[in-house]
Structure formats: C-alpha cells, structure tokens
Amino acid sequence: MRYLTAGESHGPQLTTIIEGLPAGMPLVVEDINTELARRQKGYGRGRRMQIEKDQAMIKSGVRHGKTLGSPVALVVENNDWKHWTKIMGVEPLDEGAEEEIKRKVTKPRPGHADLNGGIKYGHRDMRNVLERSSARETTVRVAAGAVAKKLLKLLGIEIASHVIEIGGVKANSINFTSLKELQEVTEASPVRCFDQEAAEKMMKAIDDAKDNGDSIGGVVEVIVEGMPIGVGSYVHYDRKIDAKIAAAIVSINAFKGVEFGIGFEAGRKFGSEVHDEIAWEAEKGYYRKTNRLGGLEGGMTNGMPIVVRGVMKPIPTLYKPLESVDIETKEVFAASIERSDSCAVPAASVVAEAVVAWEVASAIIDHFYSDRFDGLKASIEEHQRYAKEF
Ligand SMILES: Cc1cc2nc3c(=O)[nH]c(=O)nc-3n(C[C@H](O)[C@H](O)[C@H](O)COP(=O)(O)O)c2cc1C
Ligand SMILES: C=C(O[C@@H]1CC(C(=O)O)=C[C@@H](OP(=O)(O)O)[C@H]1O)C(=O)O
Asked: Which reactions appear under catalytic activity for this entry (predicted)?
C-alpha cells in the first residue's frame, strides 16, 4: 500500500490518495471522522483547533460502504482557509498587491523548517515553507491511518496509544489489563495518559510552560496486539518492519527518536536480561514468556504485542523569543508570534498510532494475498493455523 498527501496548512483543503487496499473491505466516513476528532483533542493546543472541525470526505474508491480496489481519495477542508484566501490564493498577484499582503515571512524560527526549506527551494517568503512543513498535514495522515486501522480491526488486530511522559513528568502506574482498558482510560484523559495522577501533573507542566511563553515535549507509546508471526522480513533491509515503523514515527513533525520494547535500556543490560524466552502451548502456539523486545525480532513480528515509543521535542514556535536572523536585513531579532500550540504530545500520540497502523497494515498487505478482503482474511487465518503447529 502507499499514500501521498497534499495540501497547505492555510490552503483550501488537505488531500490523500491511498492505493493498494483490498476490494470488498467495509469502510464508512465515520471510521475516519472518529480518528480525526481524536487528533483534535488534547490539552495544550493553540487557537487553531477551535477553528477547525475536521471532517473527511471520501471522493473515490468506495461504493455503497465497501472499497472497490481502486485508489481511495480523501479530502479534509480547512475552515481557516476563508481567512487566508488572499494570502494563499493560487492566482498570480496583481501588481502592487505583494505590498498589500504584509504577511511575508522573513524571520525564520529556530527549530522549524523555515530557514533550511527557504534556502532549499529559494523561497524568500518563508510562508511557502511553513505552510507545508506545518503539522496540519498530519490530519490526512491520521485519515489514511484510520483506513489502515479499520482494516486491522476487521482482521482482529487492535492498536492503541497513550502518553507516557510530558515535560519530564512520567506516568507511573501503566499496569493496564487490556488494550480496551487502556483505550477507555486514555480517551477520557485530556493528556491521553493512563495514570491520572501523572496526568494532573502533566497539565500543570503544560500550563507552567505556557505561562512562561515556552513549550514542552514528551514521549508517546503505541501498542499493536494480534499480529501474525513473520510479518516483515529478515531477508532485506527495506522490508524490515521495525525499520519501517521507526521511519514512520520519526517522520512525524517534531519526533526525534524511537525505541521498541525496553528500548535504549537494552544497551545497559545483559543478554539474559533482555531476550524473551520461547514457549509453546497447544492452544496458543508459540509465544514469548516476556516481551522486552516489543514484539519484533529479525525485522519481523514474533506474535507478541508490538510496543514502540517516540519522543517529541518541544514545539519550536515560542511566545518567549529566541534569537534568529531576518533574511532581508540580516539583523538579529527576537522572534514574536501570533499563535501556537504549547504542547501537542497528546494529539501527536494519535498521529503516532495512525502511522504505525499504516506501516503494520501495509506489511500485512505485502505479506498475504490482498486483492479481495475475504481472501486476505482467509489467508491470515490459514497462516495462524500453520504457525501454531509449526
Ligand atoms: C500535532 C502537532 C502539532 C504541532 N503544532 C505546532 C505548532 O503549533 N507550532 C510549531 O511551531 N510547531 C508545531 N509542531 C511541530 C512542527 O511541525 C515541527 O517542529 C516542524 O515541522 C519542524 O520539523 P522537525 O521538528 O521534525 O524538525 C507540531 C507538531 C505536531 C505533531
Ligand atoms: C493546524 C494544525 O496544527 C498546526 C501545526 C503548526 C506547525 O507549525 O506544525 C502550527 C500551528 O498552525 P497555525 O499557525 O495555523 O495555528 C498549529 O495549529 C493541526 O494540527 O491541525
């Protein structure tokens, strides 16, 4: 499967085209809108989220509630567009109008894409960079992820995400008994954290950062349960599923690192404390007694839950000014801004869930017969039977 996205943050709409879905898979627009609404929630976001009410439109590839096997095009319109039609219009500007539109961006923000993107494409109005580097684009990545999530759900594979750290405040009691419980508790938490005590402290940390004109980041965790064994590859680097998931996490705006299972802790322990012992039972088939490696060995799934974490740096746009250089005057200035999020870690955990769902669903489509949805389901069930007896 593959997908592309298009759209500027303050342009008319965001678009994604998804290709490679099996035909005959049930899909309705509510499957996507539920996920879009989850991404919009979350403590610490700026005023833009009050303007937008993200709703997808399915423009192709679905008929009477089922996929056709042809590309699925999804569109999400930007409500904010109506305030930006002059600044973001596609028609050439009338003479003198450039002066009139006084929103030219010549002051690059440290930590954002402005300066590097400006130099790369020759954009001396760095609005041309920020419009596309904005995490507004994650709206349609979540839309594509929602389609992947629907596919996984229909195949008995569940995925959930939660926030485990914000601004140095760590969640302690993350002993959930099932993914369902984790989902229910985190959906009700404004910071998408399972540990209610930590959640209060996280909100306070966000408030404090905001009051100081600053921003904070954090760590999110995604868990996938029910994966068949052997999805991915040990044969070639570009089919390794851990590598694909890692790339997907780090492709999210402001994500700077990724770890699986016990993660970087593995480098501080003995092999006997890291590797998961193998066991077999007639009912379960093969399983691991522990899951310190997060469900992945040799670039493939091992049937245990996939556990992946990503770290998000603090938001770059700050009310508290950091020094930068105006590209027109070359003078040093202290950046000032109109609006920004002070923390987007809760929203980003929904994005992380979406991109992981996409990678896992893609790997399944690559691995099994996938022209028809019923054929895909049967092929996975047959594989599960085979792996149990192996
Ligand atoms: C959900 C979400 C919301 C974000 N909101 C903002 C924001 O309001 N202001 C900002 O400067 N950066 C925001 N970012 C981060 C920037 O998009 C990101 O730092 C920028 O694209 C530069 O890319 P890099 O940090 O990956 O190097 C957000 C990121 C995510 C995932
Ligand atoms: C629009 C979204 O996030 C935006 C991501 C973003 C950035 O620089 O990444 C900057 C802000 O945009 P604006 O300047 O329009 O307020 C955020 O609101 C969204 O998540 O849907």
From this structure: 5-O-(1-carboxyvinyl)-3-phosphoshikimate = chorismate + phosphate
